[in-house]
Amino acid sequence: QIPDEGAASRPGTLASRTDRLSLSNRQSTPDELPTLPNGRFTVVLDPGHGGRDPGAVGINGLQEKQVVNDITPQVAQILREQGVNVVLTRSSDVEVDLAPRVQIAERANATIFVSIHANAISLSRPDVNGLETFYSSAAGQRLANTVHSTVLSEMGMRDRRVRSARFYVIRHTSMPAILVKTP
Ligand code: ZN
After folding, report:
1. How many CB atoms lie within 10 A of CB 92?
2. Helix (H, G, I), strand (E, B) or coil at 146
3. CA 60 to ligand 1 centroid distance, Å
4. Distance 119 CA to ligand 1 centre (A)
5. How far is the CA of 160 from the centre of ligand 1 (A)?
6. Which of 17, 56, 160, 47 is nearest to 113 (CA)?
7. Given pLDDT bands bounded at 50, 70 and 90, which one contains residue 35?
């Protein structure tokens, strides 16, 4: 069962996990990062939800968009420190439709597209507490495998696997595209 992004909120609680991107080893392993091709390499980061769309909401009131809003600038900074050109589909807490998110990626001529979401952690559904990475194309699947295994090994999250899905933003972008759900 693939959760429907943008659908009604699911019950659950979102635990604080925003500190996981501050792990001390994140900048100490440059040799383990994939080699960037020569020339322009543009990553479009797509923070899910925003504005009036909170995404999943935990029973403690923490909203998916708040987690995404916190994680995305950190990911952007890490990538920029590695010399990657980063474009965001939104840089503030505003609502952006799905089609404009795709258009931003196309106009930026993105090398890859990464949509960032967060799973609601529920005591009654511990199965949703882990990293999930979704793809829609063969190129997206290769990217998904790489990103998923890298994040798992760096952060020690539970593996909820790489899987195919038909989310709009990864289905309509022409470059390798993934949708990552952090725990
Ligand atoms: Zn979401």
Report:
1. 10
2. helix
3. 17
4. 7
5. 15
6. 47
7. low
